[in-house]
Amino acid sequence: MRHKGLHQSLGIELVEIGEGRVVATMPVDERTRQPYGYLHGGASVALAETAASVGTAALIDLKKEVCFGLEINANHVRPKKDGLVTATAEAVHRGKTTMVWDIRIRDEKDRLICISRCTVAVVPKGLPDNE
């Protein structure tokens, strides 16, 4: 990724960017825990949307188009106190104006931590407020 932003603040690392598939990791540490010491659901959502957005950007013409998260949901199925989580995002719909991604976040033991689905909007560059 070219720009600094939330992904850097949370320690998100891109491991793989492929055709309709992205793998990214994020530490579970003081940056990503909620006040009670467990992985913050919002951090998991940020990881999921980062993976989906990067995946969409890899599938569009960035000279002509830009992409934005349109909708995201998440089910947090297991708590996590420390270590590393890995998000695997796979495109389930590749439309001209939207892409839908399934994101599974797992821990080091391959246990499911979070299931997310993210819809990413694809819009032409040059529209007001998207430059």
Could you describe the 3D structure shown?
With 131 residues, the protein is of the alpha+beta class. It has a single domain, classed as Roll (Thiol Ester Dehydrase, Chain A). The protein is built from two helices and six strands; from the N terminus they run αββαββββ. A six-stranded antiparallel beta sheet has the order 1-2-4-5-6-3. Strand 1 and strand 2 form a beta hairpin. The radius of gyration is 15 Å and the shape is globular. The relative contact order is 0.21.
Number of helices: 2
Assembly annotation: single chain
Let me know the CATH homologous superfamily. Hotdog Thioesterase
Cα Rg: 15 Å
The biggest sheet amounts to: 6 strands, antiparallel
Span between termini: 17 Å
Please state the average pLDDT score. 95
Strand count: 6
Strand content: over 45%
CATH architecture: Roll
- CATH class placement: Alpha Beta
Residues in helix, %: 10-25%
Number of domains: 1
In spatial order, strands of the major sheet run: 1-2-4-5-6-3
Content-based structural category: alpha+beta
CA-based shape: globular
